[in-house]
Amino acid sequence: MVVLRAVSAQSDLLGEAPAQSERQALLIENLSFSYRDKPVLDDVGFAVEKGRFTALLGPNGAGKTTLFSLITRLLETSLGRILIAGRDTREAGAAALASLGIVFQQPTLDLDLTVRQNLAYFARLRGLSLKEAGRRIDRELTRFDMAERARETVRSLNGGHRRRVEIARALLHDPDLLLLDEPTVGLDAPSRKAIVSHVHALAGERDVGILWATHLIDEIREEDALVILHEGRVVARGISADIVARSGPGSLDTTFTMLTTPTRESSAGERA
Ligand SMILES: Nc1ncnc2c1ncn2[C@@H]1O[C@H](COP(=O)(O)OP(=O)(O)OP(=O)(O)O)[C@@H](O)[C@H]1O
Asked: What domain count does the chain have?
């Protein structure tokens, strides 16, 4: 019974694969990837709209980090297509990546530089003039309630504040797409809540498309766009509340468990 439910839910929860449109910050079409002979992503397709928070929800090992590595071109595949703000990452290369901001799972700030120095260094790398860099650094630090910490070294900040600086840095060049790979890992509950709330607000305010990879259901709101990834396949995509409603009574927690805990029989069914 549970097996039948899981299989039928998967087809109901996918709908049509998205087609290219003007408001997309990201479009992924038919993307597949293997590490040597180990398949990790299989025919992945979804879109991230500008001005919207999209959660990429998947258990450990689902393929989220691999997908981010393909979007940023740390990894390559010839199977499928990735468009950032309408530009094909394979064809447009650096021009496509120019509209991308990223916060990696592992922190990448220089601990011995001040907050402002970290941001200024990145802004200069992105080709911003000193004056423009200063203006944007002030804007982002104010946005993240960090203006008063600008002269402190990153080492003196707590984990939550370090994360805020990383997100601020990723926004300095006004990207169309912001990728965040499990950005709340290791943070305490209040810091996690604050970052989730800041980033949700950001999507609408800045008209930036946000792709937030997580395995934590409580970071997702009913109105968010949601892509559920399981064993390298998209098993649900749409608005979170709609996905939950279409999968029967229960919460996102129940839906996620149903879609990502395959029995042997349902695994066979999926692959048939
Ligand atoms: N360099 C690699 N070589 C071989 N297999 C890899 C490599 N990196 C990841 N994998 C495997 O690919 C699969 C997807 O891993 P990936 O890190 O993309 O998943 P994830 O959803 O980001 O998980 P996590 O939340 O644990 O980081 C896993 O089975 C993982 O063991």
From this structure: 1
